[in-house]
Structures are given as C-alpha cells and as structure tokens.
Protein: Low specificity L-threonine aldolase
Amino acid sequence: MTESEERENPAADDATKARERRAAAVRGAERILGAHGLDATIGERLTALTEAAWSVADPGRTGDLYGDGIVADLEERVAGLLGTEAAAYFPTGTMAQQVALRCWAGRTGNPTVALHPMAHPERHERGAFSALSGLRTVHPTTEPRLPDADEVRDFAEPFGALMLELPLRDAGYVLPTWDELVAVTEAARERDAVVHFDGARLWECTTHFGRSLAEIADLADSVYVSFYKTLGGLSGAALAGPRSFIEEAKTWRHRYGGQLFQQFPAVLSALVGLERELPRVPDYVAHARVVAEALREGFAEAGVPWVRVHPEVPHTHEFQVWLPYASKRLDEASVLQAEQTRTSLFRRWWEQGPPGLSVTEVTVSARGLEWTADDVRAAVADFVALIPPETAAQNA
Structure:
C-alpha cells in the first residue's frame, strides 16, 4: 500500500497494523491454548513438512501430474476412512461443494438445496451456489442448530438435496444427537432428496456421535472433508461418494479449474495430518470439555458479571465464549496478555447481537493439551485484569 493509499484508507491501515501486532504477540508467546498453522513462519512450516513428509511418502518417488500419483493415494486413503467407493481431491472446499451440489442437481432434476442460513456457502462464499452453479437455496430452519426431521419432512416446497454442515460452525460448532442425525437424513429421503454432508470438520465428530467416520459418512450420499481444518494441512479438500458420482465430479473439477499441474506439497501435508493429527482429535475433544469448564469457573472467580460458553459441554474441540464487553477492549486484552505474560489465551473477538456483546472461538489442539484447569483459570484472571477501561473510542 502506497503512502497516498494509506492516507485515503486509514481504517485498512489500522486493521493491517492490528493484525501484524496480534500475529507477533502470538508468535512470541510461550504458551498458546489454540495454536494455528498461520502462527508459524514460512521457513518453520517448510521445515516441519520436510521432516514429517518421509513418514508418509517415499522421497525417491516422482511428483504428481494432474491428479495422479500421491494425489490418487490420498483419495484412496480418504475413501477408505469414510467407507465410500471413491474420493476426489480438490484444491478448495468451496469448489468441492459447488461441484457436488451441481452434480446432484443434474441427477435429481431439482436445483434447490436445503441448508442452514448459517452454513458456509450462505455466509462465506459470496453467493457462489447461485452465481456459478444455478442452484437455489432454501432454509428448513433459522434456529441456531441443524434442522430436525419434522422441519425437513414438513418443509413447504421440494428440494433436490439436503446439505448438513457437521458441525455447524457459526452456531457454535454444534451437532445434533446421533438419533437426530439419522432421523433428519431419513426425512430427506422420504422426500426423494439426496443428503450431502459439509464435513469440513467431520474429523471432530466421532466423539460426540460415538460412531466411526465411516458410520457417519454412511448416512450421506456424498461427503466433503477439509485437510487444513482440524488436520493442519496447507490446503485442500476431498469429495467422497459413489464411484460414478466421483468420476462425474472429477469432470466438473477440471471445468472449474481444479485440475492443477502439481499438488504434492498440500497433499503431503494432508497425509501427515491424517497420520499424526487425526488419531489425537478425540483427546482434543475430551480436553476441550475440561478447558470449557475451567473458563467458565475462571470468569466467575474474576467477577465477570456474565459469561457464556457455548455449547456448555463442547460437541467438538472447538466452541464459543461470549463476554459482555466491546470487541476492541477484548482484542486489546488478548494481545496485551500475549505480549506481557507470554500466554495466548484468546485470539480475535467479534460483536454479534446487541452492542457490547462479543464472541470468540476457542480451539483446543496439541499445545492446548498442556494446559491444566488451574492453568486456564489463572490465564483467565490475567486476561480479565488486562481488559482496558471502557471509553467512547473503544465502543465506537
């Protein structure tokens, strides 16, 4: 950004400086509750990938070419984990789901997709379903949870596909019970609709449901999974389902520009994630419940007048924390804590609902396993002490 552009857009400049300060504070922290791949430098990530890659691949092997070789190996691995006939690797989940729902629309003859208004395609993809694929979306419910069987069964108009995001991230990483999930998929099929799982974070769902990945995926006609969410890969996704459906999806993948020349770095990171992170996810989920309770206790001990941990018992290893303060004050406290105490408890905060009510997302992963409940409560006390006094500027 040039000097003239900075003068013309001071808000963007301030946002950039705040992001850089936050990133530096987290990188300098000795203890982090929820570490993220973006915390590392390029050199650190390349070194880590190089060191881990040879545990999942032969270094003497030639690279992939337009989706063969190690890419095909990853597709076979995912299909095996999900119990499907086949899988296709995609550079992004947005593309994978565009293709999946487009293919189902052609097969069912109905371009209408029933999904939650908080689902990723509705919130974060700039209307891509309608703009690119000619799909139309409808919402069986607007409640902050997935639709139930009655809402699907009694919906007032036909739809060709029911798309369920597992877990529903923007509602708090929430999941239905296993019986509710079975019932809602059965209700969709009573209406001659197919079921597609947006399983970007499907890896996190086995503990809550008490079922294997294959048992969960078996409820759907197709499933999308991400390799950078939960597993810590560089990027990439997979679409899994019947073999004929996946072959059709690969055709559309090419048309959408997803048949890349070579993809082995991202694919290697996905294989490493499946090998190293996936077996640890149940531990992350279990410890997230310890952390959630300790956070609630810590805020009560610190005298915060109101706090909400949602869900009260996390369904996955990710959940929300709500506090009655402006987001700017909480962002500042989060950065100050990392800078002054070398402990990073929270990241970004957003204001949702009434002014002065803010929410953050907490992820408990490998480094979070080191935190005891006492550690969490102590960090909360430090965080609350660093919340700046209320001012007009901070609430603006």
Observations:
- The radius of gyration is 22 Å.
- Residues 3-45+280-385 form a domain with the Aspartate Aminotransferase, domain 1 fold (CATH 3.90.1150.10).
- The chain has two domains: 3-45+280-385, 63-262.
